[in-house]
């Protein structure tokens, strides 16, 4: 791989409003689940770096939080800073929208995109459009909003589409050697990924009941041979939120923990012992110092 003179390597930001499928797209491009997905908006909290290495290129994808346009809490200000700082240091930006759906929140994100970085318009969930003729005026309307280098309709769930996207992206990467190893999938630690997996299961099993101001803290992460021992706390804002997660006779918490443990074991390729507690800490999402303590920038 490394002896090729035409090898390219570069960083690609994935941006867009919440719930347009950015994390699903990242996972598909990397070929492994490294960013959490949920029907619930605003699930991505951190910049997740995913790495895809082919014979002639290494793509370093940065999955940003969906830009927050509501609720001016310290958490949302932190998330928005993560988006804008990411955009200033990448080689190309993928602006992801949902096919047939472009509204004020999409426009707000579009205005943040830098003028001096190539921007590709990625029209996701294209498979949901029944009549392709209806989408042409939509593509023209959005495409005229700025000088997009490329307009790429696709479905993140179709492998052929994601492979085609890699081909579109490659010319925008810089010529040079790979930064990461051939088998690396992410620059995030196993400890971080354990927290993300558990947080995803919390959102998946509580649906729209639980406000998004909940997070996961890994209290202890130990490895003994192949076995990982993970001790985690789910941090919530109110006692009522704690009850939602516990469920009837603890059934929901048991399901959350079981699903998270199985996903961790799959990602880490080894057995996992997982112990989960729930702690109520009111107002944590609107406390700047607290956010830094919990890993937010």
TrEMBL record:
Superkingdom to which the source organism belongs: Bacteria
rRNA processing among keywords: no
A molecular-function term among this protein's GO annotations: small ribosomal subunit rRNA binding
Topology in membrane: Peripheral membrane protein
Segments of this protein annotated with the region G5: 154-156
Main location class: cytoplasm
Localization (cell): Cytoplasm; Cell membrane
GO CC annotation: cytosol; plasma membrane
Binding site for GTP: 16-23, 63-67, 124-127
Statement: the UniProt record of this protein carries the keyword Metal-binding: no
Purpose: An essential GTPase that binds both GDP and GTP, with rapid nucleotide exchange. Plays a role in 16S rRNA processing and 30S ribosomal subunit biogenesis and possibly also in cell cycle regulation and energy metabolism.
Subunit structure: Monomer.
Name of the protein in question: GTPase Era
């Amino acid at each position: 791989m490394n002896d090729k003179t035409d090898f390219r390597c570069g960083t690609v930001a994935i941006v867009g409003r919440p719930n347009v499928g950015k994390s699903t797209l990242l996972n598909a491009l990397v070929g492994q689940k490294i960013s959490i997905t949920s029907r619930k908006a605003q699930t991505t909290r951190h910049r997740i770096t995913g790495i895809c290495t082919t014979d002639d290129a290494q793509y370093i994808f940065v999955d940003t939080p969906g830009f927050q346009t509501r609720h001016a809490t310290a958490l949302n200000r932190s998330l928005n800073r993560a988006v804008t700082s990411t955009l200033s240091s990448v080689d190309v930006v993928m602006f992801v929208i949902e096919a047939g759906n472009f509204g004020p929140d999409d426009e707000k994100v579009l205005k943040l995109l830098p003028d001096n970085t190539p921007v590709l318009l990625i029209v996701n969930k294209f498979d949901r459009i029944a009549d392709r003729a209806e989408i042409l005026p939509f593509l023209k309307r959005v495409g005229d909003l700025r000088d997009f280098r490329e307009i790429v309709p696709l479905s993140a769930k179709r492998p052929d589409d994601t492979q085609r996207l890699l081909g579109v992206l490659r010319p925008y990467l810089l010529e040079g050697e790979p930064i990461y190893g051939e088998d690396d999938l992410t620059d995030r630690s196993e400890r971080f990924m354990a927290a993300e997996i558990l947080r995803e299961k919390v959102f998946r099993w509580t649906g729209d009941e639980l406000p998004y101001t909940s997070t996961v803290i890994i209290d202890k992460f130990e490895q003994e041979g192949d076995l990982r021992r993970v001790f985690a706390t789910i941090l919530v804002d109110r006692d009522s939120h704690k009850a939602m997660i516990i469920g009837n006779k603890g059934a929901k918490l048991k399901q959350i923990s079981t699903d998270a443990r199985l996903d961790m074991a799959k990602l880490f390729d080894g057995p996992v012992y997982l112990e989960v507690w729930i702690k109520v800490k009111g107002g944590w999402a609107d406390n700047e110092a607290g956010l830094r303590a919990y890993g937010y920038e």
